[in-house]
Structures are given as C-alpha cells and as structure tokens.
User: Fold this.
Amino acid sequence: MGQTIIEKILSQNLGRIVRAGDEALFEPDLTLAYDYPGYIDSYERQMEELGIPMVKKPEKFLFFIDHFNPAGDTTHREVHVKTRNFAKRCGIRLFENAGIGHQVIMEKGYVVPGMMLIHFDGHVSMLGALGAGAISVRNAVIEALATNQVSIMVPGTLRVNLTGRLERGVTARDVFHTLVQRLGPSGACALCIEFGGEGLLAMSMDDRMVLCNQAMFLSAVTAVCEQDEKVDAFLRDTAQRPYSHVVPDKDACYDKEYTLDLATVSPVLIAPPSSANTAAIADYEGMRVDVGYVGSCASGRITDFAQVLDVLEGRHIASETRLYAVPSSVQLQKELAANGMMGKLIDAGACLYYPSCDFCFGMLGTMTAGEVALSTGTLNIPGRMGCTKADIYTASPYTIAASLLKGKITDPRTVF
Assistant:
C-alpha cells in the first residue's frame, strides 16, 4: 500500500515507515514560535520548573516578533524583551522587524519540500504550499524545547483534486471556502488536506499559500501541496538545504477524496460570527461597507494587492470608507514600493502600514459598534478587529476592492 505526502514526510523524519493512525515521537526539523503572551514569554519559566537550563539543538528553532509591533504599551514591550532575551540566551535565531513569521520563514529559504515543522499557531499549515509538513501542536512547543521531540499521531488525508481554471475576479480564498461550504466545516477533521491536480499547478505560489493557510477551517491538522517547477523557482536563490519533491504514491490510501472544478467556483463571503458561514455574494449584495483590510498571513502578498489594483487602479474607494493595505513582510513591502504598486494603492485611497499581525487581531485599525468590515484576515469572530459589536465578513481582495469602490458589498465580476 502506497503513502500520501504527509505519511512520506513523517516517515522520512522518523527514519521508518509510518501510516495514518500511527503515533510516535518525532524530532521536528524546525520548531517555530512568536511573541504572543503566554507562550514564548513563559517558556523560560517552564524550562526552569522542568530543570532544563538550555535548549539542546538551538539551530532547530526559530522565533519571531510579529505581534504588538511596534508595541503600544509597556506590557507588550516586555513580551518582546523576554522573547529577545530568551532567544539570545539559548542561541535561537530571532527575526524581528521582518514581517509575519509564517511568510518570512518561507522567503528566507528555511522551508523546503519534505521538512517537518511545528508551531503553536494553526496557520503554520501555510508552509505546506512548499511541500512541507507543518503541524500545529498548540501547547507542545515546550515539549520540543525541553526534549527536541514531540508526540504526534500521523493524520489521514483528504485528497483534493483541483481541475479547470478560475474565472477573473475569483480567487484561491473563494476556492477554499467553497470547499468549506460543500464539505462542511468538519470535512477534513483530524486529516491533512493534500492539494493536487492540474488546477493546483495552474495556481501561483501565493494562491497555494492561501489554500494551505486556511486548513483549520476544514478542521484539518495541516495541508500540503504537490510540488512543481513553481516551487523550485520560489526556492531557487534562497533554499538553505537540498531537497527533492515529495510525491504521493499512485496507490496511496486516502480517507477521503474530492474533485473541484475551479470553473464552478464563484466569489463568496464568510459571514460573522463564524468561519464556517460561507455565503454567496448575492445574499449580501448592496449591504453598506465601512472598512476593508487586505493583509495577514493569509493574504498580504503581491498577488493579493495586484487583485486590488485590478479593480482600483485609476479609481478611488468610495467616500467615508477606508482601506488598510498591510503586506505580510518587509520584503513584500519593498517589492510593492519598487514596482510602483504602493503608490497606486495610495492613489486609490488605501492606507499602507508596516507588516505585522496587528491589524488581523485588532490591535490596529479597530472598528466601532455597527461598522461593517470586509477582511482577508484569518478570522471573522466578534471582536477580532477590536469591537465585539462590529461585523466582519471575510472576503477576497477582489471582493473587498469592488465593494469599497461602490461603498457596498459588490460582486467583483461586475466592475471590470
């Protein structure tokens, strides 16, 4: 019996064949963490309680400061200081003022096909766009710091075969939430989503990152993509280790399989208060919109801002609306400046901000009661953008741009 991609990745890590349902102690190729209260700032104390003075293999860890940046008060600044001091004492590489960690680690070439990585943040699944197995372990990062190992059960796999091509105005975000709508929010419960097929290979790396980033909203453990020359091109000048593509066997055993024709996908909204509420644009068309946000680890890349400009270049957002444009990394911010896109976004009425997670979880760009936002952030739960009495609708950059152009929810296919 053949193996899926995630089974091959975990078998390679362990040095012996494992299959879905097997549980073992794995030594991650990299363990990742960022500066969120209750995590990195507590690890040093936890290690002291365990009687473990140092990390044995610091080269297998990467830390990031990408929240509360710049810090707005002394409490959050203290989290940064503790993160920096702990990393320095243990010899762990720390990235600060580089952008959102999930994006930065890919740009720096730390992630290649076949690697196994862990993080307490579920959106680490985004690294699967490069053919890596990136798994959220929530509170088990301290286990890795203390022992260099973590106990994981090998997940089964939902194979998603993508065929056809997307219509203009339709995006990878629409694709993923169409899957949520058709399979249900538990459609990949405790599984790895394996994306493949001709439709996937026609997608850009940015698109694949969106698909994998959202895995948790199908209740998946992680997601991974088949690899091709686009992966090689992405890694050509940056890959920090040799690699080969991880290919599923023809007789791999899948828990579930689903085929989606991309030509059948239309723009969707995800209505509050849950990421499971996929709805057609028509259900909300004409509703007033106050604010749009394009950014986060899910959608703050060049493709996302190109979609915004496909609608807004030479135009301007409606009066009394606001658009926050926040690239996912400093590298992307520099690229937007160099290729002229930053100026065009500003001309269209966008407010450009420094790369961080702060808009996504409500530290910046907060809303007030009764306001309506369209967001590419990771969640639409009440309070996510700073106010529990405001409504957040998750949408694609195309839909956000079209809606802010009109001042009301608008199908982007109608504005070209």
In short: The first helix runs from residue 5 to 14. The chain has a mean pLDDT of 96.
